[in-house]
Model the fold of this input.
Amino acid sequence: MPVITKGDGVATVINVFTVAPGDQARLVELLTKATQSSVRYVPGFLAAALHRSLDGTKVTMYAQWRSVEDYQRMRSRPDTSPFLAEAVTIAAFDPGLYEVVEVFQPKATQGT
Amino acid sequence: MPVITKGDGVATVINVFTVAPGDQARLVELLTKATQSSVRYVPGFLAAALHRSLDGTKVTMYAQWRSVEDYQRMRSRPDTSPFLAEAVTIAAFDPGLYEVVEVFQPKATQGT
Done:
């Protein structure tokens, strides 16, 4: 499971898929199958979590890679998963490649 | 720090801010200050991580709340942080409220 920390050099990919509410369940299924059957076998893949928006209009993948180069090597492979190929026919997506700049924890109001 | 697991009932908020590259550092500063000085004191706040896109055009906050109600109570407060007020003048944002549907770990190709 992904653990988010600062300064560990991990390359984070956050990909927000926008989808018609009637297609959200299918999109979740396709992205799950693509990750289970293909992406998680790629060298450099560390962890990922798939999120379903409560309003039905988004699905977001949060993925951690050992390095930007590992992620880009996966993206440039010609053998795209058929599940991923179907996913992009029912959803628009906007991926971002990130580094973690800050992590926050709760603070109690008592005791200033 | 956020740990992403499935079935823990956590309400996840993923907020993607789009920004001009020249404003990214300032936006990171404002969102950090808003979270440090205000958001993390709100009951129900569990953890969050702020991410900077490597291309300079996005900043994404990944936040975990005890429940949807806790998050919505924070959003409806009239005393918005001045840092957050300035942040929305330099960035567009698109928040999503999510539940985790699946978590993935790496799998070796050896041994099928």
Notes: Chain B has a mean pLDDT of 93. Helices of chain B lie at 24-37, 68-75, 82-90. Residues 24-37 of chain B form the longest helix (14 residues). Chain B touches chain A through 46 residues (CB under 8 Å).
